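User: Quick one: structure for sequence A, then sequence B.

Assistant: Sequence A:
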Amino acid sequence: MDNRTPRSAASEPGETPPDARRLATPPSARYGATGVDAEPGPPRSSLARDVAVAAVLSLIGAGAIVLLGGVLSQTTGLLAVAGIGGIAVGRAMRGEATDDPGRSMRTAVALILALDMVALGNLGTWAFALSEGGVLGPIEYLLETFGPLVPAEIAAGSIAAWLASR
């Protein structure tokens, strides 16, 4: 009987035998975008998804303005809410989409959504005041109650969205 080990057996644990079959590419390569040499990049999203996320964040910011200015009757923090909401909207529009129309279009959409956030928030605050027995129109109410704070909210939200989207 021959005392030699078979050719296919490894001499040390964990060592592969010299004649072991090798695959041309690892099995996991089929899950890559273009194969073995593909480097993973940042996840890419679509413009529609980015706009949808920014719109939801805009609605959340508007709700926070209604909660703070209407339900809690506080003016302290409204500028911060408008600014933070603008930053959130701008950051959501900052992503690199596969169907990207350009940075200026993304910035314009971020500005529009930030303006909508402040406008809806203040109209919601007025609507809450009406439900509490108010009789003034929206412009009269906002000027009487908040004065120059509403234009300052518009500026804070817009500037924050513009800077965050760039």
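Sequence B:
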Amino acid sequence: MGALCIGRPVGVLRFLTAGESHGPALVAILDGVPAGVPLRPGDIQSQLRRRMGGYGRGGRMKIETDEIRILAGVRFGKTLGSPIALLIENRDFANWSAAMALESAPRGERARRVTRPRPGHADLAGALKYGTHDARDVLERASARETAARVAVGAVCRSLLGRFGIEIASHTTSVGRAAAPATREAPWSRIVACERTALRCADPRLERRMIREIDAARARGDSVGGSFQVVARGVPAGLGGHRHWDLRLSGTLARVLLSIPSVKGVEIGSGFSNALARGSEVHDEIFYDARKRAFLRKTNRAGGLEGGITNGEEIRARAYVKPLSTLPRALRSVDLVSKKSFGAAVERTDATAIAAAGVIGEAMVAYSLAEAFLEKFGGDSLPETRRNFTGFLRQLRAF
């Protein structure tokens, strides 16, 4: 007799990705999007192009075009309510077809086996976990290349959220030692205005310092880390929940952002500096606008979340990215087979991918907010979801 599993049910929205960095393609399946959401390939393509940009990127972006194909779940420009299947072909697979063959392994160097794990990557930990002496079995899937599929998923979620006035953007807040003051929050207008700059930084003078940090790291054969902030506005109060630990939206946002390769820390609002301050300096006082019949705050140190629930203010989440692990100047490692010390294997790398990381962060936040939105408002079709949403807004105005 099978065991009975009691716990949080599978969310109304979920996705899976598949594919290796140098395999034929990346695939994503997104399930739970209501029927009737307008969606065209261009909506996804524009986000994929944003992911490919940014100062400090390496050679892989000169090879790939990341053309999206919608294989299922859309008809006549609208979602069907069935699972949405997305495919992104890897153009570089033409150079790796032997090393990534489905059946017979080639001999010698054509197999491109990796026995020298790279510090900071999943190479060694994954090889130990799966009992393989060829770390390529691990690194191909652990590669940040997989995030292209996530950006495609996030683009679909943005299309849903956009129908309800929810917008998402990001900006780079630090690269190396070039950092915006922790207490200074860039307004929405400046964040969206910096979209076409080299690093999508809201402060032009700071961006010039960031570029110098990248150039210095590249000249040393090194990489440099940084941070980005994702901002979502138009998010209604009431998403998420306080009843159980896994319903708190603050925790969900932290989880999805930490799932991005190289992200090592996440801050909601001014969470890190809040830990050094007194309560009277931290908590956002509450006011009421009688004309708009709405509660409001003049500060947003909580980042739009209190008790794991959205409070109607902008969602602000900052992610901290370590320097990329693959370096042109190889670090020391130990061969998985011979156990001798060597310089670690080197794949193509970037000096930084911080601007791309922000786009990936937007995608993951879009997914998390769409999941919470559908848990709150439900609906098998867009009109049904809209009726539920509109009814809740009436409830808020009548409060």
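Residues 1-9 have pLDDT under 50 and may be disordered. DSSP finds twelve helices and 17 strands in the chain.

User: Thanks, that's what I needed.
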